[in-house]
Amino acid sequence: ILNVEQSPQSLHVQEGDSTNFTCSFPSSNFYALHWYRWETAKSPEALFVMTLNGDEKKKGRISATLNTKEGYSYLYIKGSQPEDSATYLCAFITGTASKLTFGTGTRLQVTL
Amino acid sequence: NAGVTQTPKFRVLKTGQSMTLLCAQDMNHEYMYWYRQDPGMGLRLIHYSVGEGTTAKGEVPDGYNVSRLKKQNFLLGLESAAPSQTSVYFCASSPHNRGDEQFFGPGTRLTVL
Fold first, then answer.
1. A96 at the B interface (CB within 8 A)?
2. What is the reported pLDDT for B42?
3. Would you call B104 and A97 a contact, using CB atoms and an 8 Å cutoff?
4. Are A80 and A110 in contact (CB under 8 A)?
5. How much is the pLDDT for A32?
6. Inter-chain CB proximity B50 and A98 less than 8 Å
7. DSSP bridge partners of B10
8. How many Cβ atoms from other residues are within 10 Å of residue A90's Cβ?
9. Which of A57, B61, B97, B105 could form a disulfide with B4 if both were Cys (CB 3.0 to 4.6 A apart)?
């Protein structure tokens, strides 16, 4: 069983704060790492798909980095806004698997 | 494009009843997935399909069956519902490659009494 671990489980920040979360995964036989954003009462939406060691991706104020050799990815949010409040999921797939394994997510709450 | 749709949105069953959840996608995606989401457990894969006519077991397949007779549809069946199957069920699809991003449906909230 492949374990994908995310930390912290939850985070509460003030508007304007920058924050980051960690996703840890097995470093062997890596294929791809996904980040999803999941707002309450909605369905998950993809933020990034990362495949190469050293990948850095950015979408607006959100960015992510990938280290496949040591098995971790960071998601950064710069200048958090209330609309960033959501659960952020990472998911991992190996070179021999047909499916993603999801972490349990980091729940972010941004208050004014 | 409607994307990924799920029918029904809500359902209440009694223990032992059966039902089928329908997932449909209009993006011509090859891969389709059924997940369940429970508090503190994240998304757990029930069954998946890598193409029309194929199905495979995920992490938690017991008590569920699936069929993918048409490329655009993926059906999840509960033959004899149990309270442990109370959950929110999400369907997802991805285009061509198993590493592609997944597009999720709006979810079905199922309660088994």
1. no
2. 83
3. no
4. yes
5. 93
6. yes
7. B109
8. 30
9. B105
Instruction: Indicate the residue of B99, B104, B105 with minimum beta-carbon distance to A51.
Output: B99
Per DSSP, the three-state class of B84 is helix
Choose the closest CB to B42 out of A32, A46, A105. Answer: A105
So what's the pLDDT on residue A43? 92
Tell me the average pLDDT across A83-98: 90
CA–chain centroid gap for A101, Å, is 13
pLDDT of amino acid A2: 62
CA-nearest residue to B89 within chain A is A43
CA B77 to chain centre: 9
- Coil, strand or helix at A82: helix
Average pLDDT, chain A: 93
Q: Of B35, B46, B37, B28, which Cα lies nearest the Cα of B100?
A: B28
Q: Model confidence over B7-39: pLDDT tens digits?
A: 999 999 999 999 999 999 999 999 999 999 998
